[in-house]
Amino acid sequence: MRRFLLLAVLSVACPLMAHAEVEKVTITSQTVVADGHAFGASGPYEKLVGRIDFSLNPSDPHNKAIVDLEYAVAG
User: Is 17 helix (H, G, I), strand (E, B) or coil?
Assistant: First the structure.
């Protein structure tokens, strides 16, 4: 559930100039914050460390502002 919340926050925080799709989410570590102390209705927090891989479509009109996107290579 918290992973999806993180993705939701990131998708809202990103500017609407570009449109990207999440291809893969890799969580490398997950630790409890503040010794598991609950913060109101949200409950205890966790620290997630990992990587989110995105893909961009060069032909999508939202992505035209990204210079030379058509030359980018996945790596």
Answer: coil
Which of these, 20, 50, 45, lies nearest to 35 by C-alpha position?
45
25-70 tens-digit pLDDT: 999 999 998 998 888 888 899 999 999 998 888 888 888 888 888 8
List beta partners, residue 32.
Answer: 46
**Residues 20, 55 contacting (CB under 8 angstroms):** yes
Q: Give the Cα separation of 5 and 45 in Å (integer).
A: 12
Q: Which residue has the tokens 């032909």?
A: 59
Tokens in use for 4? 């999806």
- Are 54 and 22 a contacting pair, CB within 8 Å? yes
pTM, full prediction: 0.51
Residue 75: strand, helix, or coil: coil
Residue 56: DSSP 8-state:
E
